[in-house]
Structure formats: C-alpha cells, structure tokens
Amino acid sequence: MSGSVAVGARDDTAADAGRTAAAAAAAAGVGIRLLDDMRDLAAVRALYEGIWHTGATNPPVTADLLRALVQAGGYVAGAFDDRGVGPELVGACFGFFGPPTARNLHSHIAGTLPRVRGRQLGFALKLHQRAWALRHGADTITWTYDPLIRRNAHFNLGRLAASVDAYLPRLYGALDDSINRDDETDRILVRWELRSPQVLEAAERRPRLVDAAAARAAGAVVAVQPDASDAPCVTASDAGTVLVGVPADIERLRETDPPCAADWRLAVRDVLGALLENGAIVRGFDRAGWYIVDRQERS
C-alpha cells in the first residue's frame, strides 16, 4: 500500500514538473524537445563550438557521442527559437545517469547563445531536464560550474536553489577554449534535489535569495574580497559565517589581466575549497558577488 502511494506521488510531481517546464519554455519564447536525429545532434555540437569558441578540431562534444548517450538512455534536449525564418537551435543540454543506486542524472554541458540571454532560456532548459529526470526515476541532478562566474553562481544557487556538494580543483585539466583560456578548471559540484521544497519554489519562480549585508550585520566576516585594483584580498577568519567574494567579471579579467585572474582562482580555492573540505555549508550566493558560508560545529 505504501509503495503505491509513493509511486502516485512521484507521478504527480513529474506531471506538475512537466507543466511548469512547458510554461517556462513558453515564457522564454522557445520550444524545447528531446533530440536523437544525427542532424540535430550535429547542430548541438556546432552550437557548443560557437558558444565556447573551441573550433571544429576540439569540440566540447561530438554528435556520435551524443547519439550514444541517447541510445544508452541519457538526456539530450534542444531549445528552438521560432521567431526567425525557421526554427533555430539556440540552446542545448545533455546529461547521463550515475550508478544504479544513486538515482542521479549528471548534467554535463548546458549552453545558450549569448544573444538570447535575458529570456530565461537556461531556466527553461533546466526545468525541462528536471521534468524528464523525474519521469525517469531520478531524485537528483548534479552538475558543475566555475565558482568565479557570478551569473552562474547566482543562477545555480539562487534561481534554481541547487546546493553545493563539493569544491573540485582542476576537474577538467586544461580546456582550450576562449572562455576558460589558460585558467585552471576548478569547479563547484552542485546537487539539485528535485522534490525538495526550495527547488519546488524555485521552479515556480520564487528563487532562494540571500543577503550578504544582513549576514555581515549578524556577525559574518569577509574572508575574500576585491581590493581597489580588483585583485583578491584574503583575510584570515575563524568566524562561524564567512563571506567569500568573487570578481565582478572573471571572464574579462582572463583577457585583460591573466595574472590577476589566476590570483582569484587560487584565493577562492584556498578559502572556499578549504571551508567545504572541512564540512562548511554554502548558505547561498548574493548576486552582488558573495558566497555566504556557514561553518559547522564539530561534534
């Protein structure tokens, strides 16, 4: 009897997620669908090459690999803009399942064309992926992002209400593209609990917001912040709540001041990475540029 109730609840959640995802796609002005045709998958490869400027000799993914992922039961979806002459692929996302007991989909790459930013297309893609994952029995979705990019931190931790799982230094080795350049590929691993109250609220456009100024007023101490020249300034702190700042535009810094960008990478790795390794929890990210991190008392 209890098993039947659980299955019914899961089906209801998946159906609700599908309706929410469809509404988000409509609001973004796109149609989102699963992809398995080789022409569509080749278009995904070309889209990613254009976003990351990798060139045809070093694509982030190939069409044949995407086809293998689909054949193995993985997720590949594209967002199409119908506002022009014909449907144009403007965003795509793909992922694959973890071990059988994990009930987790790992989302490897999601990207949209820069010109459609502001239409909340990334939000619509993630909700589509969530609905699909729920229909296929997953409880969570994980993915990684660069902790130095403010808009990604705000999107993942605020708009989607994902939780930080770990800090992963040098995860992908060297990536030869115009976004990462020569920067080391440190990443934060996030976990999206698909049925959690905060994720349900985020899916309904009620993001998880945090306030760094309020945290400071309550006793939080700044551990990393930009100085007058936008270089990282690190201050030792044993406070229970710590603020870790990131630069306003790390991608610009990689172009204009690579040594400064590298200093930021090391500063955030040393502080935020160490905090997470020692059991601290990221409360959230203030879009003004601050991670709010709570140390946990050791028992």
From TrEMBL:
<dbReference type="InterPro" id="IPR038764">
    <property type="entry name" value="GNAT_N_AcTrfase_prd"/>
</dbReference>
<dbReference type="InterPro" id="IPR016181">
    <property type="entry name" value="Acyl_CoA_acyltransferase"/>
</dbReference>
<protein>
    <recommendedName>
        <fullName>N-acetyltransferase domain-containing protein</fullName>
    </recommendedName>
</protein>
